[in-house]
Amino acid sequence: MSSPPLQICLIGGSAEYPSRILACLDFLAPLLQVAGATTRIWDLAQDPLPLLGPLYYPDPFLHTSEAVRKFAYLASQADAFVWGSPVYHNSFSGVLKNALDSLSIPQFRHKPVAFISCGNSDRTGSQPCDHLRMVACALHAVAVPTQLVALPSDFTAAHDRYHLTNAGLQERMASLAKELIVYATIMRTLRTRTTSGSLRAQTNGLQNEEIVCLQDPSYSSLSSS
Questions:
Q1: Is residue 113 part of a domain?
Q2: How confident is the model at residue 207 (pLDDT cuts 50, 70, 90)?
Q3: Angstrom distance (rounded) from CA 57 to CA 105
Q4: Domains in the chain: how many in total?
């Protein structure tokens, strides 16, 4: 019996439309589909989420916002993620941070994440990716090695949209897609095995650790105010 196709959630963290980040995700999604995955792009400019509600952090499915509940369901069903963000003040965007803060560790545990950023300078363009790697670690996700950093000159504008036209970045995007598929396949197997045997104890340990994470601001990606 064959396994169901991998499900990959691509999150666009730009606050404007059209965006170059969305252009990157639009280019990447078909590459993942050719490899047999199903994809869903959630563009936060077109489908914004409300400001996070800390009370719902342990279980985003209890959130009063239907959009957050749909986002949580999409994340829960995903086998892997792509997080994309422009450079905002030398880091990733606030709308992406808000989206990730609206979810919790169970949506990301043992799932690979790839990173894409776009900035005006090759000196600062990688900063969102660098910072998002720490966020992925806090959510018990797995950051894949390959990332993509783009500049405005890597795109052309046509029909009210941006299009990734840099041949070198297109090749790197293909490498990123292949790598993410490999990681997603391996990590799906790991998540399946955590339901039985000795790894069940490991999973229970992570759940206890999650409780500590929520109680200790120095450990958690969310701190109480």
A1: yes
A2: very low
A3: 9
A4: 1
- Residue 107 in domain: yes
Cα separation, 107 vs 125, in Å, equals: 27
Mean of the pLDDT values across residues 78-91?
97
Which pLDDT tens digit goes with each residue over 179-193? Answer: 999 999 999 999 988
Instruction: Name the residue among 128, 99, 109 with its Cα closest to residue 222.
Output: 99
Distances (CA, A) of 185 to 5, 208, 216: 10, 26, 33
Asked if residue 51 is part of any domain, the answer here is yes
Cα(58)–Cα(211) distance, integer angstroms = 9
Instruction: Go through the chain and tell me how many residues it has.
Output: 225
Which contacts qualify for 215-222: CB closer than 8 Å, 24 or more apart? 220/138, 221/100, 221/101, 221/135, 221/138, 221/139, 222/54, 222/57, 222/101
